[in-house]
Amino acid sequence: MRGARAGGPELPPPPPLLLLLLLLAAAAAAAGQPRPSVVLVASDSFDGRLTFYPGNQTVALPFINFMKRYGTVFLKAYTNSPICCPSRAAMWSGLFTHLTESWNNFKGLDPGYVTWMDLLQKHGYHTKKLGKIDYTSGHHSVSNRVEAWTRDVAFLLRQEGRPTVKLTGNKTHIRVMEKDWQNTDKAVNWIKEEAVNFTQPFVLYLGLNLPHPYPSPSTGENFGSSTFLTSPYWLKKVSYEAIKIPKWSSLSEMHPVDYYSSYTKNCTGEFTKEEVRNIRAFYYAMCAETDAMLGKIISALRDTGLLKRTIIIFTADHGELAMDHRQFYKMSMYEGSSHIPLLVMGPGIKQQQQVSDVVSLVDIYPTMLDIARIPAQQNLSGYSLMPLLFEELENEVVTRKPRPPWVLSEFHGCNVNSSTYMLRTDRWKYITYSDGNSVPPQLFDLSADPDELENIAMKFPVVAHSLDKILRSIVNYPKVSSSVQEYNKREFISWKQSLGQNYSNVIANLRWHQDWLKEPKKYEDAIDKWLHQRQHQ
Ligand SMILES: *[C@@H]1O[C@H](CO)[C@@H](O)[C@H](O)[C@H]1NC(C)=O
Ligand SMILES: *[C@@H]1O[C@H](CO)[C@@H](O)[C@H](O)[C@H]1NC(C)=O
Ligand SMILES: *[C@@H]1O[C@H](CO)[C@@H](O)[C@H](O)[C@H]1NC(C)=O
Ligand SMILES: *[C@@H]1O[C@H](CO)[C@@H](O)[C@H](O)[C@H]1NC(C)=O
Ligand SMILES: *[C@@H]1O[C@H](CO)[C@@H](O)[C@H](O)[C@H]1NC(C)=O
Ligand SMILES: *[C@@H]1O[C@H](CO)[C@@H](O)[C@H](O)[C@H]1NC(C)=O
Ligand SMILES: *[C@@H]1O[C@H](CO)[C@@H](O)[C@H](O)[C@H]1NC(C)=O
């Protein structure tokens, strides 16, 4: 029986007839068992490695630990695209980024996609979305989209403020990210005032901005978000002595695409160890604040008695490098950026379980359908997590397609000057770029080299080749890369035309203005040259 636990109080054995009746009653209850409610808390920028050893040594995350104690933690969960909008598009549509053409923060899901929440609503669930959603097209700054469109231009400009830290408030200051707290309050009130009285199950989504870094207005009006901000209250949750200072390769030894990322993120200058340690500490403190918001939701479910019939899922759209590999932000296939947290607890779900299968955000969609007992949809990119989560699925006719031993992530947006594809298996991470030939691929053995410091693609060509072959059977990636290049050019041209005479003025004053204004003609010429280049196939 699902959810049955050993170790209850000893009772005398019941007479046989009564036993039979009890069994029949239990079977009837199981058949008509109400479908559980679901609460999905999705943060931003959360490095999944903080949810298990040794990453969890650096900061106290009591509610993530609570979920581990009473539920399941995934040790190898990945984003399907390490940037907000494309990642969320994959999570809500259940489809890989190249299938929905969610190329960058401006190009997410176009209208017409049916989300898992739409389907749950259609099948009788009450639904509620609160906080950061960000999976549809048309949002984010002009700088952000122009940087993505022009990533093939032969220039190198710093676009972001240098990452920095800022301490605010005092030892009792808890609500640093006030807007997230307000959304958390709304979710708590919704649980306590509405959900508690529903006769049908519900699904609640809460999207948090934390632990995404904050804007750095000191770099002018076109600032990016490179300030790691917290209060002493959260900072004291961090164990400074457990913070690992990442090893960096020298600038000249960096992979060329990594160098582009680091440069555009203004991270190629000198950083002291103390500076790096502080950025990491402040980032971890921001994760602790996020954990406390998750805690409010768990507490509200417990206080209302809903916890025993609600499945809680905690995840994030992507990670945060926090100076791993000489970068902050995400947009990278390195662990800090692509590895996400994924924890699930609730009725019937295995407790204190650690799952090491590779999984990714597109798995959320079929899992939601499974939870709500909605027949599986065709053509989804992911696989239900249910078989990995539940104690036992009794009398279940196994109709699911088996989970493959890999996950796919891809990136086509800003701060990376080439479309990037990652195939992650239990042991390996294979990263290839563009057409597969013009940029050297990377191969990491995560079991021997968890910090991804040694690219062994040349040393193990057979492994690299076989992973490349699997990748090509999932996606014709050279073709996808060239269609992104065409899209970028087309979008840029139409944006340029919309500006008319003002083009030179507007482009010079985007987020890269400090560098651009030093040599405006040089950079405009580089763009013209790119616009006149024929597309290389
Ligand atoms: C870290 O996670 C491991 C299991 O992954 C657990 O045994 C340990 O207690 C955790 N430590 C902390 C400080 O949370
Ligand atoms: C890059 O960082 C430097 C400090 O290293 C800072 O002076 C400059 O404003 C930053 N550039 C941009 C574009 O933010
Ligand atoms: C901390 O700051 C708040 C205002 O943000 C103030 O009300 C409180 O008295 C301060 N507490 C201490 C211990 O300084
Ligand atoms: C929920 O139900 C309780 C008890 O039946 C009732 O007191 C309360 O007013 C209801 N709340 C709402 C928002 O309907
Ligand atoms: C990306 O940028 C780096 C740094 O400027 C450069 O070396 C490399 O050739 C570029 N790669 C591509 C594919 O444009
Ligand atoms: C599934 O995808 C294939 C190819 O992408 C398409 O031909 C087919 O119509 C799709 N089926 C459904 C049910 O969407
Ligand atoms: C030109 O662009 C600037 C921003 O760089 C804007 O403030 C101004 O209003 C624009 N002028 C016209 C005529 O569109």
Automatic annotation (TrEMBL):
One of its GO terms (molecular function) is arylsulfatase activity. Residues 36-372 form the Sulfatase N-terminal domain. Its EC number is 3.1.6.1, 3.1.6.18. Residues 1-32 form the signal peptide. GO terms for cellular component: extracellular region; lysosome. Its cofactor is Ca(2+). Keywords: Calcium, Glycoprotein, Hydrolase, Lysosome, Metal-binding, Secreted, Signal. It is found in: Lysosome; Secreted. It comes from the Eukaryota. Coiled coil: none annotated. InterPro entries: Alkaline_phosphatase_core_sf, ARSK, GAG-degrading_sulfatase, Sulfatase_N. It catalyses: an aryl sulfate + H2O = a phenol + sulfate + H(+); Hydrolysis of the 2-sulfate groups of the 2-O-sulfo-D-glucuronate residues of chondroitin sulfate, heparin and heparitin sulfate. PANTHER family: ARYLSULFATASE K. Catalyzes the hydrolysis of pseudosubstrates such as p-nitrocatechol sulfate and p-nitrophenyl sulfate. Catalyzes the hydrolysis of the 2-sulfate groups of the 2-O-sulfo-D-glucuronate residues of chondroitin sulfate, heparin and heparitin sulfate. Acts selectively on 2-sulfoglucuronate and lacks activity against 2-sulfoiduronate. Belongs to the sulfatase family. This is Arylsulfatase K.
